[in-house]
Every structure is written in structure tokens, then in C-alpha cells.
Amino acid sequence: MSEHHETRRAEIEAAEIGPGHAQPLGATLDGDGDGVNFSLYSEHATRVDLLLFTHHEDLVPTRVIPLDPERHRSYHFWHCHLSGLTKGQVYAYRVDGPRRTKDSGTFFNPRKVLIDPYARANVNSLWDRTRAIGTEDNCAYSMRSMVVDLDGYDWEGDEPLRTPLADTVIYEMHVGGLTASPSSHVVHPGTFNGVVEKIPYLKELGVTAVELLPIFDFDERQVLRIGPNGAPLYNYWGYDPFGFFAPHTGYCSDPCECTHITEFRDMVKALHRAGIEVILDVVFNHTSEGNENGPVISFRGQANEVYYHLWPQDRRHYMDFTGCGNAINANHPAVAKFVIECLEYWVTEHHVDGFRFDLASELSRGAGGYEMDVPPVLWGIELSGILSESKIIAEPWDGGGLYQVGRFPGKRWAQWNGPYRDDIRRFVRGDAGLVGTVATRLGGSPDLFGRNGELPTNSINFITCHDGFTLNDLVSYNEKHNWANGEADADGAHENFSWNCGVEGPSDSADVERLRVRQIKNHLAVLLLSRGVPMLLAGDEFRNSQGGNNNAYCQHNETAWLDWNQAEKETEVRDFFRNMTALRRRFRAVREARFFSGRTNPRGLPDVTWHGTRLEQPGWDDPQARVLALTLAGFDGDPDLHVVLNMFHLGLDFELPSIDGHRWARLVDTAQGAGEDVLAPGAEAPVPGHTFHAQGRSVVVLAALPDEGGTHR
């Protein structure tokens, strides 16, 4: 045994036991770093044992401390203080209580070793998920929690960036998948440190925030099934957490040395230095423990009857509004406390800028699983003083059929706009009769958010996300190809509103490839010209493909990892996106945080005027319409803009409005090749005449510039 471990063992054996305090929950290091307060919530437990380990891979604890209910219990909380313990201490619990019955809903089993739900770090080097199922003792195969020191880190003046939503461009990415491929050429692939190495690239793109797929601790070793090729398929995305206060072990370069906190903070600090916010995709709708046949990890063994929605008729079984086996009972006071304290922890201790809530509508459910008019947990998040400047984003639906787009509880919640995704996909692929709907989406979806006094910034606009086709696959496949997932291609969305441009999958045709590039640019242009908050899926800017797999949740391999060789090869789309984010920053008319209202600028132009190929004839009632144009008035010194969306397959002439003392000049044309598709300031191409010929399937942006030659247009 090393000298360090000898010292640790001596600390454990010599630690004096005090009564401790009920609050805060979790393991809290004393201010001098010499002593720890432990506190655990379990209302119906009859016995709680605290297990202390010298080393994280010890098969048995060095010391077991039974908590005396007379001395170490305050109502719902079990607690104690141990002097002499220091950071890095490994610990866990065993909890006993009333046996599981139809009426009780409890799931106590003192043979199971439980991690702390408030743990700031966990280790899983011994973890065997199968041993956590059933009734047998699993101490030698259990996860353990670690005491961490939250003080002493040098933030160097860092704090959350507070970028206004109207100025935000979100880049949704998987921490592991960003750099897991050898093509990433980073020193620490698949880790928080790997993200840091890619920050110069992210900054160059012009994104203002990264939205990280779940980084809460999850079971990356969970084998979901064996794939068709005989290889195991693992939980890749991470939407199955068990450690909500702990950075994921697998994203640390050396988790056994308790580097979780430092490495995550280093990443946040480095991103902030580059002007990039950090938004966490959080999963408070279910946990990794699954249904009654799943493992006992933490919540189930401590307060199953509180943390989960259980069937009233037989509380041995779980209500499932998530498709993952269980659903968190988020509006129970103890669980709401857990959720809000968790979010506040990530903001105060880790400087996180915001959160995206997976299947957020599940958090609207109360007793019996019914939708609540005023869900305490959601309003608690909205009204928290600590979270008041944090971005809060809802995926406003769940797996049980509760759909709340445009009516999500609260006011300042931004929402993933599913109708935006579907309507723009259909329009760009060439579906007819959608121009009225598309105009609504371009204007920030007032049909969804205007009626409740909300704003365009309540709409998170996206074409693609982790869940579905990549943008390249959206224009390359008519059907999903998910056979590698081992579910007979039955998983994933069946209706994708995609179009393969004439060939299913990869193509050697130069014409097909040119059309696909143009369609990708069309999607990106519409996204970045829409009011609301645009979100891009990582890799879409360089045509990353998943081979037609629209549900790569279990593909911890080259299918889902970003291919950086592709990034080096496919520069045209990347440059187009980068230039379009710069254009969005230049012109407030496309990112204004208000709906169109008819207000006029000094030149007498209303904030928006809608057209078709002819001025002020947008074809709202034309079932064959595939074109839309709009004039956006510039305010506060910005030029007026004219946008043409021609999703017809043939080129068409569009009339242009006349603005005294100004002439139209081309800024954007997705039909042009690299270097000509977005023109730099000062290099705009003058437009002769009173019309513009927009090629088939193209997006054009013109700017009204002062006519120094005296020609009035």
C-alpha cells in the first residue's frame, strides 16, 4: 500500500464521529479542508450505514459507520460529521427500510451499495451494472462517490457571459464525439480537455454558445444490446444520468485522481475567454435506474417512493412518460429542491451560462402523472434569483404525449421550436403552399409565442439536432437507415421531411453534390435569417454524415463521432456558415428581439413587407407557391434588406422595391460557389435593373446601399 493510502486509512480509522448537520445535502468539506459533513435524504429509511474506502478499488470498506437515528437523524435527513477526513475521500451508503409492497413504493435493499445523489464526483472502475440488479450484495462491483474540494480553484476573474438571447448562436455538440475520432488530432480525445483544444475552431465559426449533450455522470458501460455485426452497443448520448452534481467520469482524463471538477472548470473558463457560453443539456425527467427490473444505484435505494412516479394501483411499478423505464416525480418538494439546488450549483460553482431541459414537459407533471397548471419546479427555476440571468431552454414535450410548444409554463423559458424545424425542412425541399407558415417562422413564430406575451427569443430555431438526421443526411436520404442500432430499423423518427436530391446516400454525381451543397446552404441561410435563436448541430457546417442513421444514441464509434478529415475537405459550407453568422451580427433586422409590428423607419418602410415574384403579392392563398420574398427595414443606421427565397426548381425573376437614393447590391446567393456565395462588406455586387433573377432552389439577400452615383432605385 502506498504512503498516500496508508495516510488515508489512518484518517478513516481515527476520524471522530459528530452529529453533523442536515443541510447542505451531500458531502461537504470543512472550510479548513479537515473534516466532512455527510447528509442524505431518506424519509422512510430505518437504517443508514456510511461506507468509507481507503482506495476507490477496495472491494470492502475500511470502515462502516452506522448512523444512530437518535443522534444522526433530523426528520427526513440522515447526517454525521467526521473529523480528519480530506478531499478525495471515497464513500458510499447502504440503506434499509420497509420492504417493497404494492402500497409502499419503497425499494430498500441493504445489500446494495449506493452513491450519493448529491456527490460532486463518482468513480466507476469496479462498476458492474448487472450486479446492481436483483437482491445480492454488490459491494465489490459498486460505484463510489468522492469528496471534492470546491474551493481553491483560480477562476482568474471568470464569470458567466450573459450574452443576450437575441445575439446568441448555439452549437449543439457531444463532448466525447467532438474529439473521439483519431482525425481530431487532440492530445486528450473525447474529454473536456479535448474540447479546449477545439476552441479556436469554434470561435472562428462565430457561434456564441456550445450546448453540451449530457455531461452529468451516466453509465457509459451500459450495453444496450448486441448490434448486427456482433459488437456491443453502448449508451453514447448520455441521456440516462445517475450523478446530477458530478461531471461525467468518462470525460475526465484521469477521473480516479478526482480531476472531474478541475477539468470541467478549465473547459468553461477557456470557452468564456473565447466569448463562448456553456449551456448544459440536463436530464431531470428520468434516471439510469430504469424500471423495476433495473439496477439500484442511488435514488431507488434511498427514497424510491419520492423520486419516481409510481402506478397508484401498484406502487411496485413505474409510470413511464419518457420511454426510459421511469419518470422523475419532479414536483415533490424534496425532488424540486434537488433539481433547483443542482442547477444553482452548476451556475455558482462552475459558471455555467444556461441549461437545456430534455423532455421538459415531464417536469410539468404532478401526482398521478397529470399535467399541472402551475408546476412548482418549473416556476422555481424561472424565479430563482441565482438562475435569473441563466438561459433556460425547454424541449417542450415528453415521451408520454404531453406537447407544450408555445404554452410551456412560465414566461422566460426558451423552447425548442419543433414546428420551425418541420416547416422549414418541407419548404426547402420544395413542398408547395407553405409560404404563409414560413413567413410566420421567419418572424419568430408569433403564432406560438406572441399570444402569451413572449418574444421571438422564446423560440429556439433549428433544422437539425442530435436527435435526427444531420444536415448532410437530410439532403442525402429519403429514408432513415438505422439497421446498425439493432432494432430492425424501427427506431428513430419515421417522417423526416428530407429529400435526397435524386440519389439515396453517397453520390458520385457532381450535379447531385452541387445541389446538396446548395440545399444545405439554403437551410443555413433561412436559419440565420430568422428571428429567434438559431441552433446548429455540430458537424453540419462541414457536411458530417451518420450514413443515414437518424438515431445514433448507441453509436459510440465513427458513425456518430465527428470526422475532422471531412472538416478539412468540405470547407465551402463551413465558410458559408461562418460568413452568415457574421452577417447576422451585422444586421439587427434579422435578429431583432421583437415581433414584426408595422413600425416604420426614417425612409417610410415598415419593418417587414412580404412579396412573391411580384411586389406585395406573396401568394398566401396559392397552394402551389414555393417562393417568398421580404423587405426588412433597417433601423438605427442599418441598411434595408431584401430577401428572396426561391424553392421552385427553376430560376425566376423577382421584382425589387425602389428606395429613393439607394441601390440594391447582392450580399448572399446560395446558388453561387465558394467565395461568391457571401460577399464581404465593401465587395457587394450591384444589382442592375428592377428585378433579380434568383436561380432555382436558392436564397438571396440584397442590401440597399446609398447610391453615390445619383441613380434612384
Quick take:
By secondary structure, the chain is of the alpha/beta class. The protein has 15 helices and 30 strands. Helix content is 21%, strand content 19%.
Shape: elongated
Through-space gap between termini: 85 Å
The oligomeric state is single chain
Rg, rounded, reads 28 Å
Order of strands in the sheet with most strands: 11-12-17-18-19-20-21-22
* Low-confidence spans: none
Number of helical stretches of at least 4 residues: 15
- Biggest sheet architecture: 8 strands, parallel, barrel
- In round numbers, the mean pLDDT is 96
Number of strands: 30
Helicity range: 10-25%
Structural class: alpha/beta
Name the beta content range: 15-25%
Question: Can you tell me about this structure?
Answer:
An eight-stranded parallel β-barrel has the order 11-12-17-18-19-20-21-22. A six-stranded antiparallel β-sheet has the order 23-24-25-30-27-28. The chain has 713 residues and is of the alpha/beta class. It has 15 helices and 30 strands. Helix 9 packs antiparallel against helix 13 (510-528). Helix content is 21%, strand content 19%. The model has no long low-confidence stretch (mean pLDDT 96). A hairpin with an 8-residue loop joins strand 24 and strand 25 (641-646).
